[in-house]
Amino acid sequence: MDESKVSPARREILEKIKQYEREGRFDEDVENDPPAPELLPDQVDYLNKKLSSKISRRVANFIGDRYFLGLIKKGRLIIDGVEGEEHLSALKNGAVITCNHFGVIDHYIVFHCIRKYLPRKYLYKIIREGNYTNFPGLFGFLMRHCNTLPLSSNRRTMMNFMSATNALLKRGDSVLIYPEQAMWWNYRKPRPYKIGGFKIAYRAGAPVLPTFISMQDDETLDGDGYPLQRHTLHIMPPVYPDPSLGEKKGAEKMMNEAFAAVKAKYEEIYGLPLSYETQEEGEEK
Question: What domains sit in the chain, N to C, each tagged with a CATH number?
Fold first, then answer.
């Protein structure tokens, strides 16, 4: 790919990703997002208990689904297939699904590929605070109502978040998390995981279903002059909590097993050992 043909804004992001990889800043955002207003407890109805929330959720999911299906039909979102569908039986009683985070479309790729296996018709997505509080208009409406579970810098709001995610998992819903934390645009390597999502799974007694979306360049360019990506969703065997370990060690064990599965899948797909620019030559992460 000739990066000189890519728009200046995207080139800046690509260079920032390279810089952050060199510096080991894997969980930091590279997009130039504005500061996020604090999300207060009365600003989010995590479990959609209010009638207005139920109506907004139905409308938002309908609009969002039609939008992404339109992108697929137009060839602007390419999903080549799914590998490991046999592991989706883990969703029957609810699970935490992990995925690499490389764009605003990755959540829909996961949902599109697993939707028929979800006992309930919704997939809940954990999102950053700014994605919930920053955006006006239709995009902001979708961010707030498409079954999103926003994090918050407010302690009381986070208490409500933890209670809601636990309730969702225990009632059999599935929750998508990005254990890498930050979004790195079109970055293909899996990045080191944060433990938070695995603690959520452990507390609820729910399995973690590791997934990984691989990418290949298409011949068509996007609006930034970058090749459109062809996506395949890879689903690895579920990781179950060990109740004998306690939360800290149990969550760490789940995290390490999930990352090991994704690392092995990355190396199988791309034929390369997983390594980062921050490491010594020949050393693997």
Answer: 50-270 (3.40.1130.10)
